Amino acid sequence: MSKKDKIIDVLNNLLQGENMAVDAFNIFINKAQDENIKKTFQEIQNQHRENMGVISNYIQDLGYKPKEKLGIKGVMSDFMISIDLTGKDDSQTLSKAISGEDKGINMVEEIMKIDLDDESKRLVNQILEEDRSSLAKLRRIGQ
Questions:
Q1: What is the reported pLDDT for 48?
Q2: What is the pTM of this model?
Q3: What is the pLDDT of residues 86-139, one digit of tens each?
Q4: C-beta separation of 14 from 108 below 8 A
Q5: What is the CA radius of gyration of the chain?
Q6: Helices (H) then strands (E): counts for the chain
Q7: Do 125 and 109 meet the contact criterion of CB atoms below 8 Å apart?
Q8: Residue 1 to residues 7, 11, 67, 83, 114: CA-CA distances in angstroms?
């Protein structure tokens, strides 16, 4: 596998992570009762959607096809989140969202350790900063 193929593989994993975040926030939005929490969830979901667009376009600009389908991994993730939130209130839903966003950031930080070209590193770092901003937003409403 060439270095470029490895980079595309990493970017597709990042794309799938963002896609999973969008799906998870669908569940959080539907579960939330408080309008402020629901609005914040929607804002963060929209940021993840924008991230998906940026990553997809970048992969296409490099001459590759983005892998936007999640498959069984995404279905299982959605199922587990739904099960975890059964009977939970807004504070518990918010806690789950914070935990998920934190795990996503950890994943992106691991990606930053991979040998990427400068432009891919810039893109991944941009996503990381936006995810950190989303996590801070979630923590603020949880206080």
A1: 95
A2: 0.88
A3: 566 888 888 989 999 999 999 899 888 888 899 999 999 999 999 999 999 999
A4: yes
A5: 16
A6: 5, 0
A7: no
A8: 10, 15, 17, 39, 15
For residue 80, the one-letter residue type is M
Give the tokens for residue 33.
């009762």
CATH code assigned at 108 = 1.20.1260.10
Q: Are 85 and 41 in contact (CB under 8 A)?
A: no
For residue 137, which amino acid is it? Answer: K
Q: Do the beta carbons of residue 94 and residue 139 sit within 8 Å?
A: no
Q: Taking a C-beta distance cutoff of 8 angstroms, is the pair 122, 7 a contact?
A: no
Share of residues in the chain with pLDDT > 70 (%): 87
Look at residue 56 in the predicted model and tell me its pLDDT.
Answer: 96
pLDDT of residue 87: 61
Contact 125, 112 (CB under 8 A): yes
Q: Domain count of the chain?
A: 1
Domain containing residue 89: 3-141
Q: Tokens 């996590």 belong to which residue?
A: 135
